[in-house]
């Protein structure tokens, strides 16, 4: 793809930034706004995503960690926070006492439902865009999600061309 704009990572004009910088800047800003929204339920992005995964049924902490692309230790901290908020329970796995199964509580289901309403999330992520731009953004992001490997998949960055 050929760009007509000269890419300049030091430019104050975002239109001249590299695409990766644009994506990471917007992602960070949207995530901060989303975390501010979720704070009304004593949640953050990681906790909310864990609740969403638990809505389909109990999972082990190991499964949750794999789904999130984080270590089991990190997921243990996320689950501990959710447990303190009364959103999940942890219990031993009857088949393997070393494993802990995590299940969503009624309060967790309510919090996920209220905090995860679609419109606030859409408003945060598409602020300043018209309907056509939102459609184009959604199509481009969906294509990137399909094209860019998740953690644990083959995810080597493309090499720079050799001289």
TrEMBL record:
InterPro entries tied to this protein: ArsR-like_HTH, HTH_MarR-typ, MarR/SlyA-like, Tscrpt_reg_MarR-type_CS, WH-like_DNA-bd_sf, WH_DNA-bd_sf
Alphabetical keyword list: DNA-binding, Transcription, Transcription regulation
Organism superkingdom: Bacteria
Protein name as catalogued: MarR family winged helix-turn-helix transcriptional regulator
Source species: Isoptericola luteus
SMART domains reported for this sequence: HTH_MARR (SM00347)
Domain HTH marR-type: 16-146
